[in-house]
Amino acid sequence: MIEGLHTAGSGMLSKAARQEAMANNLANAEVPGFKRDSLFLREMRQAVKRRSGDYPDWRINRIEGMWTDFTQGKLRHTGGRFDMALNGPGFFALSTPEGVQYTRNGSFSRSAEGLLVNALGYPVLDATGDEIHIPEPLATLIVDATGTVRGRDAQLGEDVVIAQLSIVEFPALDDPVARARTPYQAPLSKSRDGLYIPHPATPQLPAQECEVVQGYLEAANVEPVLEMVRMIDMYRAYEADARAIQVQDITLDRAVNEVGRVG
Question: Left if phi > 0, otherwise alpha if psi is -120 to 50, otherwise beta: which for 95?
Answer without folding.
Answer: beta
